[in-house]
Amino acid sequence: MRVLLQRVSSASVTVDGSVTGAIGLGLLALVGVTNDDTTEIAQRLAQKTANLRVFSDAAGKMNLSLLDVGGGALVVSQFTLYADARKGRRPSYIAAARPNLAEPLVRHFADCLGQAGAQTVQHGVFGAHMQVAIHNDGPVTIWLDSADL
Questions:
Q1: CA atoms in the 13 A half-sphere facing the CB of 85
Q2: DSSP 3-state assignment of 44?
Q3: For this structure, is 78 an active site residue?
Q4: Does residue 55 carry a catalytic annotation?
Q5: How far apart are CA 45 and CA 130, in angstroms?
Q6: For the whole prediction, is pTM greater than 0.85?
Q7: Disulfide check for 2: which of 15, 32, 45, 139 has CB 3.0–4.6 Å away?
Q8: What would the pLDDT profile of 65-99 be if each residue is shown by its tens digit?
């Protein structure tokens, strides 16, 4: 599983002209699933996400977590995190899990963020063409990969 985190002052997802998820201060989590991912992996990455110290304290040092600042999380499925562009001009997505595996794991990741104490957890729409609006704060962008845990 791969999670690309962006610290945001706000973020939202729109599908067919309707906002399906929105947060203020928090983390946008773009989540990609591969074929050997499990609920345990999703849970570990959600815990890491919730407790990662990427928010500034009073001294301006990144010392605070999503939980410390009472922030929200916007979780968006992103199969393209498993793109392989090493050959040719068209990326291959063979490493990305099929929807029947990926969708429940993305949902489980989001549920685990809420159980970890994230103030709000909002979602994109799995498999939909989404417009994601991001006000990246910093910018701060962090890459998490289950292969590195």
A1: 5
A2: helix
A3: yes
A4: no
A5: 23
A6: yes
A7: 32
A8: 999 999 999 999 999 999 999 999 999 999 999 99
